[in-house]
Write a structure and sequence with these properties.
It is a single chain. With 273 residues, the chain is of the alpha/beta class. Helices cover 37% and strands 23% of the residues. It contains 8 helices and 14 strands. An 8-stranded mixed β-sheet has the order 5-8-2-1-11-13-14-12, sandwiched between helices. Strands 7-6-9-10 form a 4-stranded mixed β-sheet. Helix 1 crosses helix 3 and helix 5 runs parallel beside helix 7. The longest helix has 26 residues. The radius of gyration is 18 Å and the shape is globular. The two termini are 22 Å apart.
């Protein structure tokens, strides 16, 4: 706990921990506990299930291309409404009920996140982050509040003034890099990186940045774990000390990972173990 006092950590909050009421409360309590211990916490959230629900209510097709949500103009409006409106405010309320101040921000606020539209595929208003206004987040942290960031970015260049949907894991990694954070923590619905996805007991507790590439080449990483590992690599390559992929299905997994030797997932370091 003493080693993290005054340090910045960026937590990406998503998956089942955003749906289960007990887990939602536990995450908020973990964030507040860490902040009370002197850790500077930035929370970046997802919200796929709630976006899907709202799209169904609006009669919109739900479609993904290479793991990214196809986002036409109407879908973008719904994404922005759900992420920056309901989910952001719900999380802020949970944190404040747990005893700390929270400030909801999205990439449009203060030019926090700026992005260009993804050109590799026709997926609509989906962006690649190019700039992070780290100073804005530092100012919020200096005020004693916990920033709660929604992954909607401000368009650049030919998309100036347009809202773009950005991946929450990537947003968290880019923010961690911009803040020279001590840790990036991704809260997921799995126990961490498994050597064998069919064997829950094959958890890799500690790995190096080099091993991430080896795991990918060997097929150890598959499905949604590939982009999460890539986000960890991005953060480590840009100066973040450690990255963590933890099991959000375990109550208080964030505190277990930060403040115990056993942890609650996979710890990834830049250098070989």
């Amino acid at each position: 706990m003493k080693a993290l006092r005054g340090k910045t950590i960026v937590v990406k909050y998503g998956g089942g921990a955003m749906i289960n009421s007990e887990l939602k409360t536990a995450v908020a309590e973990d964030i507040v506990f860490a902040a009370a211990a002197g850790v500077r916490v930035v929370l970046v959230h997802g919200g796929g299930p709630e976006i899907d629900l709202m799209l169904k209510m609006a009669g919109k097709e739900i479609r993904f291309v290479n793991g990214l949500r196809y986002t036409d103009a109407e879908t973008m409006n719904i994404v922005q409404m759900v992420l920056c409106g309901k989910i952001s405010k719900d999380i802020c309320a949970l944190i404040q009920h747990a005893g700390a101040q929270a400030l909801g921000l999205c990439g449009l606020d203060g030019g926090l996140l700026k992005a260009v539209r993804v050109k590799a595929a026709d997926i609509g208003f989906v962006g690649d982050i190019k700039q992070v206004n780290g100073k804005l987040l530092e100012n919020v942290l200096d005020s004693g509040a916990i920033p709660v960031v929604s992954p909607v970015a401000m368009g650049m260049d030919e998309d100036e003034g347009v809202s773009l949907n950005v991946n929450a894991d990537t947003a968290a990694a880019e923010i961690a890099a911009a803040l020279h954070a001590e840790k990036l923590v991704l809260i997921t619905d799995v126990s961490g990186i498994l050597r064998n996805v069919l064997d829950a007991d094959s958890l890799i507790s500690v790995a190096s940045r080099r091993e991430l590439d080896e795991f990918k080449a060997a097929g150890v990483l598959s499905g949604g774990m590939i982009p999460k590992a890539e986000c960890c690599a991005l953060a480590l390559d840009n100066g973040v000390k450690t990255a963590h992929i933890i099991d959000g299905r375990i109550p208080h997994s964030l505190l277990l990972e930060l403040f115990t030797n056993e942890g609650a997932g996979t710890l990834i370091k830049m250098n070989d173990i």
